[in-house]
């Protein structure tokens, strides 16, 4: 039913029911008419309204509600995806479906084909045209993109392509779900050095098959244990629940080693197998470690020798102690051991020595090249991580002074900083003021610093000081000030004999070619000596 018929019969164009005096009716304005037409276009419907038209109030509210629009589109999508691909099973309707692709459409046929094509798509369109003599009388519809692609000898648009027939396994389940699960399992194997949770694997599976068909968390746990068996362990690490890690136990590694040695290998092959087995044991112990939490940066208390040693597994400590020579090798074991741990699992750990060395280099040299070079060699954190740490520390500390008491002495020290102050056009310059607080006696805060994303705008708002301009008062307050006379200093009352040695050394430091003069004052009288 068109708009003109509904206006004459006083019918609601949305529900197609008559409008009575008892119904709650709204009269559409210009904006109201546009909103209904926009909702109609979103619903892929043919409802058209104009200003001054009457509608049921409930019909208008439900029709323009975004939630109901989304549900309607979901139903349309479900109906579209379930359309059979065989022409013998297609329930085609010229008033609803696109003439070209067979999906739901909204544009009215107005032109004929401009080019001839002889392919499978053309045969389908000709089969539809064989059942109707007049497309205008049949109110046939089409998609604009389908029409353009059909006329320009292109293929069916991907958005309106019919879905392929889904294969099924012997158990009747969709094989695509099994493929999506294997896709997530492969991602787990390729990223075993990360702390991947079951929820992360569910999300990764949804990227392959869609969020509606992806497994739930509990079902994913069951499938992982069924697929990998005792090779994986699902536990809580550093507060993160359901973390999936591969469990290469010492027993399984040694069993694999003995199986390789039973084949009578050569001495070099046997030596290589021993080294590989030792490396697997070390990496297994590193991945199962729970001493690091990347959600928080290491605190200053963790920089001691005793606390740093806990980040190096015992088996790795034994290996390094055997390799290194010297009496006290603890510092080398800590530094090189943490470098090995960081290289074995770069995304799992935030180690103190790696971060502390980068912060110290940035503080002393401010060189990105130096930090990134040492980072590529595996000795410290990256320059980006150092900048992130400093931003997080500034955001967490703010302008609060930790452990400050009233008996402490506080002094603020400020200095200006200029960057690009001499540009040719005067743009891109920076003039700022940095202020620090000096406290005596000194104290260090132990509050952990969270590893979060902080913007420069947030940091600027933390310690922002408004600029106040000095305005002298109208009355001269300084005119009433009276200053006392200073005591005149009499050089005769000052004994300068103790300065003779200093003056002599200072004069002798200058290589003058002319005569040196020394004035020596003793007992209030001066004596001039020259040579």
Give the SSE map.
Elements: H1 3-9, E1 25-27, H2 30-42, E2 54-56, H3 57-64, H4 66-81, E3 107-108, H5 120-129, E4 141-142, H6 144-151, H7 175-190, E5 196-197, H8 198-209, H9 217-228, E6 232-237, E7 240-246, H10 250-261, H11 267-287, H12 305-309, H13 314-323, H14 330-344, H15 352-365, H16 368-376, H17 383-397, E8 409-419, E9 430-440, H18 456-462, H19 500-508, E10 517-522, E11 525-530
Antiparallel strand pairs: 1-2, 3-4, 5-7, 6-7, 8-9, 10-11
Structure summarized in a few sentences:
With 531 residues, the protein is of the alpha+beta class. The protein is built from 19 helices and eleven strands.
Describe this structure in words.
The protein is of the alpha+beta class. Among the domains are: 3-73, no CATH class; 83-160, no CATH class; 175-247, Arc Repressor Mutant, subunit A (Orthogonal Bundle); 491-530, no CATH class. 41% of the residues lie in helices and 11% in strands. It is built from 19 helices and eleven strands. The protein has helices spanning 3-9, 30-42, 57-64, 66-81, 120-129, 144-151, 175-190, 198-209, 217-228, 250-261, 267-287, 305-309, 314-323, 330-344, 352-365, 368-376, 383-397, 456-462, 500-508, and strands spanning 25-27, 54-56, 107-108, 141-142, 196-197, 232-237, 240-246, 409-419, 430-440, 517-522, 525-530. A three-stranded antiparallel β-sheet has the order 5-7-6. Helix 15 (352-365) packs across helix 17 (383-397). The longest helix is centred in the middle third of the chain and has 21 residues, at 267-287.
